[in-house]
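Attaching the record inline, Q. Sequence:
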Amino acid sequence: ERLVFVVLCARIHVHVTLSSTAATAHRPPTKTVHMTFDEFMSTAHAAEHASLQSDHWYLQLRTKGTSEWIYEDLKEWRPQFNFWFGDPTANQGIDCRFGARGISASNHYDGGRNFIAMLRGKKRYIIAPPTECPNMHLFPQSHPEARHSMGDWANLDYKQYPNYLKVKAINVVLSAGEVLYLPSYWFHHIISTTLSIQCNCRSGMALRGRKLTNKCDSL
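Structure, as predicted:
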């Protein structure tokens, strides 16, 4: 979920979340494949009835590059001083994610102020403030998965990660037509409960929460 894929002629780069048996702690749990958009949509629709343990397919487009056309439908999100942008000079474009049921993003935090708009389907967000950082069992800063929590949040091992029992979090289901504002450094674990389309934009970094996560990352 941290890779960017672009439209390239008639074929697209698609992000595949591998089944749990194919992923390990030290190998990226994803790979990139090439297919047409029609092929991607066929696999995404098939996931509505597939096992949650099977491979899932995920497409991400970003306005910077070959996907400037996204601004045609989301004109309000062109960088400018308005409700959506606290600092338009720090905006890095719009990210749109097309995901199948069962796709998840492991618990992590980002620095940017983040507005998330659900265009189709539903996603479940488990969110927690930066004050919960000491309980999040983060990978060390030197690890490829820095800023992310260890363990499988779909089947947590509380004996191995006991501090998860202390986490105070909020459970939010974001539906089509709704927008979620996620402040800087807030933790979020995301699960697509249906075939979904979601776009988001970031606008600079806030200072609140930075010291908490910096201290936590250094543990």
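The chain has a mean pLDDT of 81. The helical segments are 37-46, 70-73, 210-217.

More tomorrow.
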